[in-house]
Amino acid sequence: MERTQRFRMTPARREALWAYGLISPWIIGFLIFTVAPMVTSFAMAFMEYNVIQPARWIGGANYRNLTIDPLFWQSVKVTFTFAGMSLIPSLAAGLVLAMLLNAEIPGLSVWRTLYYLPSIIQGVPVAILWGFVFNKRFGVLNWALALFGIKGPGWLASPQWALPALAIMSLWGVGGGMILYLAGLQGVPTTLYDAAKVDGANGWHRFWKVTLPMISPVIFYNLVMGTIGTFQYFTNAYVMTDGGPDYATWFYNLYLYRNAFYYSKMGYASALAWVLFLFVLLLTLLIFKSSAAWVYYEGQLKGGRG
User: 280: buried, middle or exposed (CB in 10 Å: 19+, 13-18, 0-12)?
Assistant: First the structure.
């Protein structure tokens, strides 16, 4: 009798079984396609494995080799430099566009659509398109500069200009962040602006003291996602420059890909992947740590007391 009582199907148990049954496809997929590869990669980072021959345990040799690998340090330098060149301008451009498109102007929905569309068109076609834009002989950009009597640089063919060219190209996708900024701006209570006007605040003061604090959670989210996305940069560099010229666009993910699928150094590539994971994790934690000083959540007092 006690056993029957213990295993009786109560409404709460039935609901829990239904819930686990419905989410089980995601759980199974997560275990097979995320957890299992991560565990395998972690183990493989301590092995020498070239796909053809059996894996051989070598301990921390892959990580030690990274410290003396000049191409590894070049990839770190390029990736961090690109992050500095592209991340802040992309965040700022998205915010400026959002503020412009938050105003009452004719054809507002059309303009919003036009600025958002490029962010959903990504990948190889966009890289090919921008390859023509940056072509040093017949590219649109150098043609436009020539109209003002300016001789355009070599862009993707120049070691000095290849990375800035990719940073300029990154502005193509600011529409995604713009939409989030726009949602944040429309959530700012108009009473705050009215109160600021009564106190004599001009447009700059209203932006600095009202708009930025109120949309700081959106800025924080875009900063975190932008940082992660920047360190995953691969497709455009692979299609447009393949790491050149003279390793000027030798991105971290490009080097990781080459070790795995060009040189068949799966163990070394796994070590690179885990170092990249640590880079992104540390940067994300730093951003989260700094958020207490500049991110404002409505209803939360300074110091985290609600």
Answer: middle
pLDDT in tens, 219-228: 999 999 999 9
**Distance (Å, rounded) from C-alpha 271 to C-alpha 14?**
45
What pLDDT score does 306 carry? 43
Judge if 121 and 227 occupy the same domain. Answer: yes
Q: Are residues 190 and 277 in the same domain?
A: yes
3-state secondary structure of 302: coil
Domain membership flag for residue 50: no
Length of the chain: 306
Tokens of 45: 């980072």
Q: Are residues 9 and 128 in the same domain?
A: no
Nearest-CA neighbor of 208 among 223, 222, 224, 192? 192
Segments forming the whole domain that contains residue 92: 71-294
12 lies in the same domain as 149: no
**Separation CA 63–CA 89 (nearest Å):** 34
Q: How far apart are CA 90 and CA 87, in angstroms?
A: 5
